Amino acid sequence: MSNAGPPPRRSRRAQMPMMFMAALALLAALWAGLLRLGWAIPPLGANLMGNHGPLMINGFLGTVISLERAVALGRNQGGRRRYMIVPLLAGLSGVALLLGLPPMVARGLSVAAAVGLVYIFVVIYRWQPGVDHGVMGLAAVLWLVGNALWLAGWSVPRVVPWWAGFLILTIAGERLELARVLLLKRGAREMFIAAVAVFTVGLVISLAVPDIGIRVAGAGLVFLGLWLLRYDIARITIRREGLTRFIAACLLPGYFWLLVGGGLWLYFGASYSAGLIYDAQYHALLLGFVISMIFGHAPVIIPAVMGVAVPYRPVFYVHLVLLHLSLVLRVYGDLMLNWEARRWGGLLNEVAVVLFLVVTIVSARMGKK
User: Fold this and answer.
1) 116 is in which domain, residue-wise?
2) Is residue 239 part of a domain?
3) What is the 8-class DSSP label of residue 240?
């Protein structure tokens, strides 16, 4: 579903609170991540370290993803703003965590936000039915299930596979949407559906038999990663120049990390709910795949959502290269049980994310001038 031009100024002002809450959740999640890595910094709150995952996935990524979809759908329906309640709820869930409100408040807001995103995709699918929107709608359902389990008292390690599924299938659905221009060969779309089905079935199995379910889901991720490497348009656009090449340069290593993360799920299953192996299983996906996708899509999404141009600059490659090299160090430390490599790799991961924020802001301001 395309965006119908940049948003009007009044609409941009309405979106600023959600962007502020998303940025606040991101910075708090990064701080909590440093605490989890063992760096001696002030805790800033009794429960901050334990809320690293919820802040990153619900407070930051959930807000940003639902904001982008709410803006696009509202604009295509003549400027309707009722869908903006969805990113607002997601943003408030992060604020509730930061304020130390009773856990049920943040969890309830997250469930409400996920219900709203499912509704948004129901509207989108009715308007433009297709496998791509169906998969993104399924991603929203996975977010809803994960948040509902969290509300019911399930631990974050049991819930995080569903949250990861929300992010992975959202991105995969968007890539399938763009793959239309390649006129996919017969059977390619069916293979994509099969990979998504295997992954989803694995998550369902994990509710009763976690170890087997995570292994099945991991096989689905490996299948999906291979499909994206074979059929995604990035393998063609990497030969272009400027922003087009940069986006492809973000996507292709992201697919590599999707294979690595899926392989770790397949090999280790649900044997670890904390520690170094668990760290590798999820950060290969959430940093190597998801954050790399954000690096690539930000120069396109920010203008569409906020109406602020983010001109491409070669310096964009600095935070991209730093992210992937530091993740290699982190995952090596995890798998080799090397705490120092993991600590320094994790610290440099966060430096890459902060550098991305700084470079994006500076590029937007320079583009405005």
Assistant:
1) 1-127
2) no
3) S
The phi-psi region of residue 337 (left if phi > 0; otherwise alpha if psi is between -120 and 50; otherwise beta) is left
pLDDT at 72: 86
* Cα 238 from Cα 234, distance rounded (Å): 6
* In the block, residue with structure tokens 């001109």: 311
State which amino acid sits at residue 27. L
Residue 149, in any domain of the structure: no
Number of domains in the chain: 1
Residue 359: partners with Cβ closer than 8 Å, 6 or more residues away:
313, 315, 316, 318, 319
- Nearest Cα residue to 50 out of 39, 36, 60, 38: 36
pLDDT tens-digit readout, 134-179: 999 999 999 999 999 999 999 999 999 999 999 999 999 999 877 6
- Which residues in 139-158 are b (16+ Cβ under 10 Å) and which e? bbbbbbbbbbbbbeeeebeb
CA torsion sign, 341 to 343 to 345 to 351? negative
